[in-house]
Amino acid sequence: MKLPDPYLHNPDEQRIDAPLGRWNLYIGGARRHVPGYVNLDILATPGVDVLADAHELPFPDDVFQRVECDAVLEHVYMPQRVMREIERVLAPGGFAHVVTPFCHPFHEYPKDYRRFTPDGLASMAGGLKVVKTGWRTGPAATWILFTMEFAKMLLPWRWWRILAHGVLGLLLWPLRYLDPWLMNSPHAARLGNHCYVWLQKPKTGR
Ligand SMILES: C[S@@+](CC[C@H](N)C(=O)[O-])C[C@H]1O[C@@H](n2cnc3c(N)ncnc32)[C@H](O)[C@@H]1O
């Protein structure tokens, strides 16, 4: 059974008017197919179009109307450098949507270096205009993920951990529907799960 997930990623909160263009870039989409985007990753898997490191994007300046960078910056050694690369390849007037974890278990793809806040993301805007910042997933997502990791930590065998992940995930994940309501609290950000920033490159160029 799959319940509808329109609320899980806080879509209304995150929405802005940022249409796709002819060329759009998705950074870090291994094992995914992302229609409408050039999918770039350091891992060669089905769905990846360009095998490259986000620290050195193999594209000319001012090409992409949209850049998506979702849950990648925590895995790169120099996030500021990746942000400057995103700024460089964005077309004038183009938008970047950058999502990162704040309260989230350690996870290596292939490394896990850090966490971010909305202000932290905005501080890396460089020459890009900060259009909007906020939370994509909130305290319920945080609570569920940490509860699952805590339970798995106590189990000695891999297959038990896989089973616990499946069973607890199934039992707990409907609680994520509490997030749109919990995020009305002014204190929700203290336990936010993933935050985002929307950035726009000035139309006049850099
Ligand atoms: C947590 S996954 C994000 C997956 C996807 N964006 C999503 O939300 O489902 C992080 C991805 O970033 C990729 N990655 C890590 N370091 C990278 C780098 N330096 N350049 C490009 N991709 C990188 C990893 O291979 C992995 O596919």
TrEMBL record:
InterPro entries: Methyltransf_11, SAM-dependent_MTases_sf. Keywords: Methyltransferase, Transferase. GO terms for molecular function: S-adenosylmethionine-dependent methyltransferase activity. SUPFAM superfamilies: S-adenosyl-L-methionine-dependent methyltransferases. It comes from the Bacteria. One of its GO terms (biological process) is methylation. Residues 50-96 form the Methyltransferase type domain. This is Class I SAM-dependent methyltransferase.
